[in-house]
Every structure is written in structure tokens, then in C-alpha cells.
Amino acid sequence: MANNSGNTILAILTGAAIGAGIGILFAPDKGSKTRGKIKEGYKDAQKDLQKKYETLSEEVKTKLSTTKVDLEGSYEDLVSNMSHKTEDVIIFLENKLAELKDKNAKFQR
């Protein structure tokens, strides 16, 4: 995701630079008007980049918060399942211990 954003920003900046260069070469207006147009185009590109950055930032925040909630839920499920499994193992071992105690008591007699 970050790589696509970087490529998009690079493409926009490259396009703006090329457009400004061509605009200067073929400008029918005076230099002051051309500089004003370039400045205006720069401000528009800056606003566009800011909007894209804000949108991307919100998307990333949303995905991270969703992922965090999913991860917390998965962790809680895992702990719960392990707790149940642990209880099963303890019960099994207690039963085996009781059987061994009975066998040992028979041998002691």
C-alpha cells in the first residue's frame, strides 16, 4: 500500500514539473502571469497531495484498528481454548495418577 502511494506521489510531482516546464516554454502570457499560473498549479497539486495523504492515513488507521481488534479477539480465543485444554490435561493426569496409586497400593500389600 505504501509503495503505491509513493509511486502516485512521484507521478503527480513529475507530472506537475513537466506541465510547468511545458507551460513556461509555450506561455503566451507575460512572465508574471506565467509565474502566477505555476504558483496556482503548485498550490492545487499541494492540496491534492494533502487530500490523498489524509485519505491514506485514515485508511491505514482504520485497517490497523480493525487488525488490532481481530488480533485481540484471536488471542482471547486462543487463551480460552488453551485454558480448557489445560483443564482436560490436568484431569487426565489426575486420573492416571489415581490409577498408578491404586496399582502401587496393590503391589505394596
UniProtKB/TrEMBL annotation:
InterPro entries: Desiccation-related_membrane, YtxH
Pfam families membership: YtxH
Transmembrane segments: 6-27
Alphabetical keyword list: Membrane, Transmembrane, Transmembrane helix
Name of this chain's protein: Gas vesicle protein
Organism expressing this protein natively: Flavobacterium crassostreae
Source organism phylogeny: Bacteria, Pseudomonadati, Bacteroidota, Flavobacteriia, Flavobacteriales
